Model the fold of this input.
Amino acid sequence: MSYHKPFNYEDSDELLRDSEDLGYRLPFNKDISSLFKKISISGTPVPNRLAVQPMEGFDAYQNGAPSKWTERRYLRYAEGGSGLIWFEATAVKDDSRSNPRQLYISNENIDSFKTLVGKVRSAAEKKFGTSHRIYCVLQLTHSGRYSRPVEGFKPKVVNFNPFLDKNPQNLEVISDKELDSLQDDFFEAARLAFHAGFDAIDIKSCHGYLLNELLGAYTRQNSRYGGGFENRTRFLTEVVHKIKSGIEELGVSSRINVFDGIPYPYGFGFARESSLDIDLTEMKVLIRRLLILGCALFNITAGHPYYKPHISRPFDRPAPGTPEPEEGPLEGVIRLIKTVSNLQKEFPDVLFVGSGYSWLRQFFPFVGAAVIKGKRASFIGLGRSSFAYPDAPCDLMEKGKLDKGKVCITCSRCTELMRHLAKTGCAVRDLSIYGEEYKKMRSALIRKESKE
Done:
């Protein structure tokens, strides 16, 4: 089979044969009832195992407050039937936003977040009944080397990375003093999230942003936040401790990279001999520590979207300028499923959200159901698929299957919109809004290229 074989499966048998050719038979079960088995997170009931992953819409107001477009997106998720909504990356400081229109929570806009959470809960309960109470997680972030607030690029890096940086002289390395202060910013954002009505917050530690870089800061010298394991995990563990100590009722979680796709000593989660062999040893130690500190939920991902985007988001079509990977997308899906399965078996009583299911299109419910039934994950997370098909859970509840004409086709157009700072959604399935946004973005690029 071609090393980058796109999705062209009419039936599941061919999909399963291809997975076997890769040395792994995908879990598969046509009985999808396990997806709708209730579960509790720290005593709070969740109506099903389908989770909306955090996908930035980049449509906030300049002050960071949710806009009418933000509200539209989350009401579609709520009315679509997902039991867990993992709200998109929300900056803890204005200058840590990755886009001038990224969400940013502050005392100034706390009421708008509170209103949004209330509308989301009401919409779901109105459609599915009062027993369908959505579990809401707010992802808190500092964008690190990808910080781009209103005034333009303001990157803050943990250390020089030869896989990502061309000129170390142009880098602004974040100081220990700044990191100490940033812990307080995360705590304050968590406090605001609690008062807005979120069940939990996520300390974002993935995809090359600041806290993920800290986990792989092996080469950061003379720092409390670099070098050995204790230092590299210090920020995350100390922030979790502060939040749980100060706001006991608030759930704390992390969407976290188990490996970065960048070899040691410049990336987290790979074997020390600079190979690309995944090594979960440190990840498992970190999970044990976070459990002791009060984390109840982990959302597992991998890779670096600006370096090797196919690791975190297996796709059929790369975004322009992104090389075609030297592996098929099915390999990436399998890797993510196997990794989460490894962790779930190691920690059978811990809740893990699995990633990578969007590429499976109409077959994701059958794979997801088998994963849940086999206790290989606790939730099935859907990111790009939620953009494209927010009511997929509802269709599964009512019809037992998905509409092939509504599924995500992993074409990377949402990624293109994100990278060009446009309002982001599905340019294929949500055509009237994001299809038009995509046309405007492409036209602007063509005009710019013609002038150069």
